[in-house]
Write a structure and sequence with these properties.
Protein name (chain A): Aldehyde oxidoreductase iron-sulfur-binding subunit PaoA
Distance between the termini of chain A: 35 Å
Low-confidence stretches of chain A: 1-33
Mean pLDDT of chain B: 97
Organism (chain B): Methylobacterium crusticola
Oligomer: heterodimer
Strand content of chain B: 15-25%
Keywords (chain A): Iron, Metal-binding, Oxidoreductase
Shape of chain B: globular
Radius of gyration of chain A: 21 Å
Helix content of chain A: 25-40%
Largest sheet of chain A: 5 strands, mixed
Structural class of chain A: alpha+beta
Mean pLDDT of chain A: 87
Number of strands of chain B: 11
Distance between the termini of chain B: 51 Å
Largest interface: A-B, 58 and 58 residues
Pfam families (chain A): Fer2, Fer2_2
Helix content of chain B: 25-40%
Number of strands of chain A: 5
Organism (chain A): Methylobacterium crusticola
Strand order of the largest sheet of chain B: 4-5-8-6-7
Order of helices and strands of chain A: HEEHEEEHHHHH
Chain lengths: 210, 316
């Protein structure tokens, strides 16, 4: 209950601070209001998803995440916050990890996208997928596809000399210590708190100590 | 998101002309800030001009020994570049102190220094905000201000610039190159790139309609030791309460800028000249005339302690 009370006080303070200005405010239009007129035409986009050429015709507002889930029915990639905070939507685009929720599908013309389905299949798992199973690196599993895609790309980043906030000497060869691993995975939230097993799984694939 | 039309730009000047000719048009590159704000309907562009494929992705040496960084170079590419890691460590350190691996892979150099502020009232569309709805008022005044600016504010806005890269660029005296809709080019010192709010907080940068940032330039390296220390509410993926970017020389002189404390990266050259006298003297001079609230007055002593830590690192 303690946290609920605190939240309530914070909310009251936020609103009280604004009360003076509210009367004279020129408030923006309600969130649901739409400008009149016809919608802009849907746009074609061609991209490769998990090795397969796909062509879609989409409203420009469709994110890469929604294109994958709602249009291509690849529901392994999850929608958590839809604002780049949680990492559940992490996919690989041309080999690098991004948040699929903060990217427009029509901007991915010609790109190669890899989702958790493309990393491996049942019976032919990617080593990172197998390590997550071996180390029980999840509880509810909702963040897991994003964690796995993120971890695969993160190890590649170490190999390419991409520094992190935990890196000591910027010009020395990168080593994946415990601090580096956790910092580099900080864009993937696990609300079940399976972090220690996630770190064990990633470290096992990297051949390092978590 | 509100509906919008979309086009892919063919050239930098063409992109500038496309945005200048349509009210409500915006550039999009990485999109990590713009799409987030569009989902909240804080930004409501009617037309997007995709500049992602323009040839602005190079990092190249300049004749004066510096570096020119294309506007579309990603944060990851910039932080990882061998010359940046070797000669401009403060840039690499600042970049990796912000956001996450996923976001840094997508966010661009120009987009980073153009990112909007993170004031909670800017994000709360049911409340007034002079940046979001000019003239509506500032809800932060008398509100929750812990994260907000302590100096350089105005009665119309007390939002802080949330960036990390911009603070490092200010220490290095970087430049910003642009192209206009008519193809004209100009260079803006980064010191003049982020405006103080004054009576027009909605105008954050001195760019004309359609003017496109094409590159960021770094002068020749300063040598010395490079530092970026960021204090935040959690160890990773959070905006700065206070950050210190510094390039320190062995003789005790150096350059210092502060992040998270003002509407723009906060560097006072007369204050950094006091570095040989110690961090307290620098911070006292840099924050002279500050107008903190009861909730964020802690930022000034925190800046002094953070600079003391950085000075200690510099001596090590």
């Amino acid at each position: 209950m303690g946290s609920a009370v605190t939240t309530d006080i914070d909310r009251r303070e936020v609103v009280a601070g604004a009360a003076a200005g509210l009367a004279a405010a020129a408030l923006p239009a309600p969130a649901g209001a739409q400008a009149g007129g016809p919608l802009p035409p849907a746009l074609p986009v061609s991209l490769t998803v998990n090795g397969e050429a796909r062509r879609l015709v989409l409203d420009a507002r469709v994110t890469l995440l929604d294109a994958l889930r709602e249009h291509l029915h690849l529901t392994g990639t999850k929608k958590g916050c839809d604002h780049g905070h949680c990492g559940a939507c992490t996919v690989l685009v041309n080999g690098t990890r991004i948040n699929a929720c903060l990217s427009l599908a029509v901007m991915h013309e010609g790109d190669a996208v890899t989702t958790v389905e493309g990393l491996g299949r049942p019976g032919d798992l990617h080593p990172m997928q197998a390590a997550f199973l071996d180390h029980d690196a999840f509880q509810c599993g909702y963040c897991t596809p994003g964690q796995i895609c993120s971890a695969v790309a993160m190890l590649d980043e170490i190999g390419r000399g991409v520094p992190s906030h935990a890196t000591g000497d910027l010009t020395a060869p990168m080593v994946l210590g415990a601090g580096e691993l956790r910092e580099r995975m900080s864009g993937n939230i696990c609300r079940c708190g399976a972090y220690s097993n996630i770190a064990d799984a990633v470290a096992a694939v990297a051949g390092s100590t978590p | 998101m509100r509906p919008f039309s979309y086009e892919r730009a063919e050239s930098p000047a063409g992109a500038a002309a496309a945005v200048a000719s349509r009210p409500g048009a915006r550039f999009i590159a990485g999109g990590t800030n713009l799409l987030d704000l569009m989902k909240f309907q804080i930004e409501t562009p009617t037309h997007l001009v995709d500049i992602r494929h323009l040839p602005l992705r190079a990092i190249e040496d300049t004749p004066d020994g510096g570096l020119r960084i294309g506007a579309l170079v990603t944060n990851t590419e910039l932080a990882s570049h061998p010359r940046v890691k070797r000669d401009y460590g403060v840039v690499s350190r600042a970049i990796v102190a912000g956001a996450t691996g996923q976001l840094r892979n997508k966010a661009t150099t120009a987009g980073n220094i153009l990112q909007r502020n993170r004031c909670p009232y800017f994000y709360e569309t049911n409340l007034p905000c002079n940046k979001r709805a000019p003239g509506s008022g500032c809800s932060a005044l008398g509100g929750v201000t812990r994260s907000l600016a302590v100096i350089g504010t105005s009665p119309h806005c007390i939002a802080q610039n949330p960036g990390d890269l911009a603070v490092a660029l200010r220490v290095l005296d970087a430049g910003v190159e642009t192209v206009g809709p008519d193809g004209s080019r100009r260079a803006i010192p980064v010191a003049d790139f982020h405006r103080l709010p004054g009576d027009a907080p909605e105008i954050e940068v001195p760019l004309a309609p359609g003017e496109l940032v094409t590159a960021v330039t770094l002068p020749k390296p300063l040598g010395g030791s490079h530092h970026y220390h960021k204090v935040r509410d959690r160890a990773s993926y959070a905006f700065a309460l206070v950050s210190v970017a510094a390039v320190l020389q062995r003789d005790g002189t150096g350059r210092v800028a502060f992040g998270g404390v003002a509407p723009r990266p906060w560097r006072v050259e007369a204050a950094e000249a006091l570095l040989p006298r110690g961090p307290a003297a620098v911070v006292a001079a840099a924050f002279e005339g500050a107008t903190p609230t009861a909730d964020n007055a802690f930022k000034i002593p925190l800046a002094a302690r953070t600079l003391a830590l950085v000075s200690e690192e510099g001596r090590a």
